[in-house]
Specification:
The protein has 327 residues and is α+β, with helices and mostly antiparallel strands. It is built from eleven helices and twelve strands. Bound molecules: guanosine-5'-monophosphate and zinc ion (ZN). Zinc ion binds at residues 143, 145, 190, 269, 293, 295.
Length: 327
């Protein structure tokens, strides 16, 4: 999530806006407009949903491969899921308690011919037809690690050394925005750790250091800060404050957007025993398992590279191109 920071004076230089448009809070040409003008992002007419060019994809794939390289010694179990989660697991996860405003559900037409006729009629009249849709058994995945906890719970207690899982998914969050870094569908790569508290905290510290080293290698200006997730409502504010007080979430922030605070491009999370309260995730000695994850926003990192090194790959530092697989 994008962090709001009080210690802005300690931040690396914000990317200077080109020219500001008085009163709008936006600048022109915005980074988004520059990406569109260069055919790197292809607008679809919906804010936060873009097509991507070959160059963009090459950077994103290079970025993902670099994360694989950084985690090679983890011998993580690789698991890939389509960008959907069973609705039942999603309901159990309590996501709707915390982030109802971000959730995306999948609905389909399940009616008979008469219903179909009604649907077409409404469409023809320009009326709302979506009440003819029914919820399916799947929702859109909100974070790459969500599908794995019930799967791990079904396997029984963890081995004594716990587990490390490597996941990657397109994720959906309903937050349309003109900031290119706030997409509605974006790719998230994660290493997820399941074990006891000590194992999770050691894992998270190791990934914080690796994340910083990755950003250094890519010559991206960055800083680390404590963060919170955007919990919904007044009660959510208390949960967010508690998350910060307990330092459960750290983010690696990189300046990307015009005149805006830096963007969270990686996050390092400690969920304590949240997921083992929801599912029967147990350690080898029968205790509630703790979990944590290191998440890499592949699209945000791609945008950060384009912002800090420019839209012309030819102008990028050679070492950065080499680190991304020789793009
Ligand atoms: P978190 O679960 O910590 O909110 O997200 C994990 C990572 O996913 C973030 O650090 C960020 O890199 C990426 N991410 C979160 N929200 C968005 C978004 O709206 N757009 C994009 N492109 N990436 C996001
Ligand atoms: Zn996660």
């Amino acid at each position: 999530m994008e962090a709001s920071l009080d210690n802005a004076s300690e931040l690396p230089d914000a990317v200077p806006p080109d020219t500001s448009v008085a009163g709008t809070g936006y600048t022109t040409p915005t980074f988004l407009q520059a990406l569109i003008d260069a055919d790197i992002l292809i607008p679809t007419g919906v804010d936060g949903i873009y097509g991507r060019s070959g160059v963009y994809e090459a950077i994103a794939e290079g970025m993902n491969a670099l994360v694989t390289q950084a985690g090679a010694d983890q011998h993580a179990e690789v698991l890939r899921f389509p960008p959907t989660t069973p609705r039942k697991d999603f309901e159990d996860s309590e996501y709707l308690k915390s982030f109802p405003h971000l959730a995306g559900t999948v609905h389909s037409f399940c009616g008979n011919e008469r219903d179909h006729f009604r649907l077409l009629e409404r469409l023809e009249e320009g009326e709302d037809w979506t009440d003819q849709q029914r919820p399916t058994r799947v929702v859109l995945t909100p974070a790459a690690c969500y599908p794995i906890y019930p799967v791990m719970a079904r396997r029984g207690p963890l081995p004594p050394e716990g587990r490390v899982v490597d996941v990657f998914s397109y994720c959906f969050r309903h937050e349309p925005s003109l900031e290119p870094t706030r997409m509605q569908m974006f790719r998230m790569r994660e290493y997820v750790r399941l074990g006891n508290a000590g194992q999770i905290l050691a894992f998270r510290q190791m990934w914080i250091e690796r994340g910083q080293a990755l950003a250094d290698q890519l010559e991206l200006r960055h800083m680390l800060d404590v963060a919170n997730d955007p919990f919904f409502g007044r009660g959510g504010k208390l949960v967010a404050d508690n998350q910060r007080d307990q330092k459960l979430k750290f983010e690696l922030l990189i300046p990307v957007n015009d005149g805006a605070p830096p963007t969270a491009c990686m996050s390092f999370n400690y969920h304590v025993d949240h997921f083992s309260t929801v599912w029967t995730l147990r350690t080898s000695d029968g205790e509630k398992a703790h979990t944590g994850c290191a998440a890499f926003g592949i699209d945000r990192l791609t945008l950060a590279l384009l912002r800090q090194h420019g839209l012309e790959l030819g102008q990028w530092p050679k070492t950065v191109r080499a680190a991304l697989g020789g793009i």
